Amino acid sequence: MKPFLYLSARTSDEATAAERASMLEHTGLSSRDLAHHRLDRAPLPEVDLAELSGVLLGGSPYDWSAPSERKDALQRRVERDVYALVRRILDADFPFFGACYGMGAVATVLDAPLGPDFAEDAGAVTLEVTSAGRSDSLLGDAPAQISSFVGHHESLLEVPAGAELLLTSATAPVQMMRVGERGYATQFHPELDRSAFIRRATLYDGHGYYPAGHIAAIEQATLGLDTRPAHRLLRRFALEHARR
């Protein structure tokens, strides 16, 4: 099988390792079939899409909509690399799945408005499947409502022209969309189960994703949450687009 390429844009070694483990678990791919490139460690080399099954982009503490004067040289380089690749991917309708930071990447390529209006503190979210979502291959037999985890400073303000809204919520209108036939982006984190979410939230305590020191309250509020339907999005993406 041609491998999938997973891109990470986190500067924390612990957060990066945990996100990669979650991606491996919920895509069902082996480490051989999910190649990994840390954008914080090295510029993105030339990517030959013909040699891949698809590309996945994880989350990041970087905000695309942040003022340029707040972005250091590393963030600007990561954004240039991601923008160039995601633009190629969308132009080719190549299989892509971006989570959170990946949503911002797609929005930026499509020149769609991003801002803080629908920022969500770290925690659980209830997602509503839209009529377009009901007919999408990744969501076709999902329940009408599914649960997952969020935590972001920026989000899409509206669905970009030409994109299909697949999941929405009361707190952020664009939670999942499809661009073309094979380009997916989520505002939530389908790779996170509760234990992985608590670990990540603890790592980012004090970074503005929730009131500092409130991790115990978040743990209590998310007891018993079933996120398996959200995880299945990643597994179905991998199964649908794997190629030889």
Describe this structure in a few short sentences:
32% of the residues lie in helices and 22% in strands. The protein has helices spanning 13-27, 73-92, 101-109, 131-134, 194-203, 215-221, 228-241; strands at residues 4-8, 34-38, 54-57, 96-99, 114-115, 120-129, 145-152, 155-156, 163-168, 176-179, 183-186.
What does it look like?
The chain is an alpha/beta fold and 244 residues long. The strands form 2 sheets. The protein has a 9-stranded mixed beta sheet with strand order 2-1-3-4-11-10-9-6-7, with helices on both faces. Strands 5-8 form a two-stranded antiparallel sheet. Strand 10 and strand 11 form a beta hairpin. The longest helix has 20 residues. The mean pLDDT is 96.
Produce the secondary structure layout.
Layout: E1 4-8, H1 13-27, E2 34-38, E3 54-57, H2 73-92, E4 96-99, H3 101-109, E5 114-115, E6 120-129, H4 131-134, E7 145-152, E8 155-156, E9 163-168, E10 176-179, E11 183-186, H5 194-203, H6 215-221, H7 228-241
Parallel strand pairs: 1-2, 1-3, 3-4, 4-11
Antiparallel strand pairs: 5-8, 6-7, 6-9, 9-10, 10-11
Helix pairs in contact: 1-5, 2-3
Strand content: 15-25%
Q: Which stretches are poorly predicted, pLDDT < 50 over at least 5 residues? A: none
Radius of gyration: 16 Å
- Enumerate the strands of the largest sheet in spatial order, edge to edge or round the barrel: 2-1-3-4-11-10-9-6-7
User: What is the 3D form?
Assistant: globular
Mean pLDDT: 96
**Percent helix:** 25-40%
